[in-house]
Each structure stands twice: as C-alpha cells, then as structure tokens.
Amino acid sequence: MVSALPSNFLSSPDYVVLNEKCGVILTMPKIKTVRGAAKRFKKTASGGFKRKQSHLRHILTKKTTKRKRHLRHKSMVAKADQVLVVACLPYA
C-alpha cells in the first residue's frame, strides 16, 4: 500500500510512516494514542512496559489457588513486542 504512493509524498515532513507493512500513515504533528493500549500498558522508570497477566477473568474454578495467585502479579512486555507498544503509545 505504501509503495503505491508517490515517493515525494513519503519524504514530505507533513507525514510519517509508522508501520510500512500495514501502511499506516498519520499526519503530523499529532499522533493519536491507541486508547486500548493506554489502559493495558504502563511505562516503567527503566523504560520498559508492564502489563497484566491473562487467564484470570473467567473459568477460574479449575485453576489452582497457586496459579491464580501468580497470575495476579504484573509482568513485563517482551523486548520483541515493545516496538508495537511504543507505536501505540507515542507519548509514553
């Protein structure tokens, strides 16, 4: 999708390409924060992102108390996924 655009369009300072694979082009200077990501991820002082563990919403009777207790703690976003989180939270 991005390759179909004229070359001078992509080099213009009025536009920035966030994800060339999906072809997401946003106008500058304001980039919108993905609100769903803002509610799910918090930035830490060291620059990483913490997230809540999954599998703790329903069907809890078959899960042991130890498993549910460990799922209550926050976890860090993997390094491979941090690029996606930063793209969703440009001002974090």
UniProtKB/TrEMBL annotation:
<protein>
    <recommendedName>
        <fullName>Large ribosomal subunit protein bL35</fullName>
    </recommendedName>
</protein>
<dbReference type="InterPro" id="IPR037229">
    <property type="entry name" value="Ribosomal_bL35_sf"/>
</dbReference>
<dbReference type="InterPro" id="IPR001706">
    <property type="entry name" value="Ribosomal_bL35"/>
</dbReference>
<dbReference type="GO" id="GO:0003735">
    <property type="term" value="F:structural constituent of ribosome"/>
</dbReference>
<keyword id="KW-0687">Ribonucleoprotein</keyword>
<dbReference type="GO" id="GO:0006412">
    <property type="term" value="P:translation"/>
</dbReference>
<dbReference type="GO" id="GO:0022625">
    <property type="term" value="C:cytosolic large ribosomal subunit"/>
</dbReference>
<dbReference type="InterPro" id="IPR021137">
    <property type="entry name" value="Ribosomal_bL35-like"/>
</dbReference>
<keyword id="KW-0689">Ribosomal protein</keyword>
<dbReference type="Pfam" id="PF01632">
    <property type="entry name" value="Ribosomal_L35p"/>
</dbReference>
<comment type="similarity">
    <text>Belongs to the bacterial ribosomal protein bL35 family.</text>
</comment>
<dbReference type="InterPro" id="IPR018265">
    <property type="entry name" value="Ribosomal_bL35_CS"/>
</dbReference>
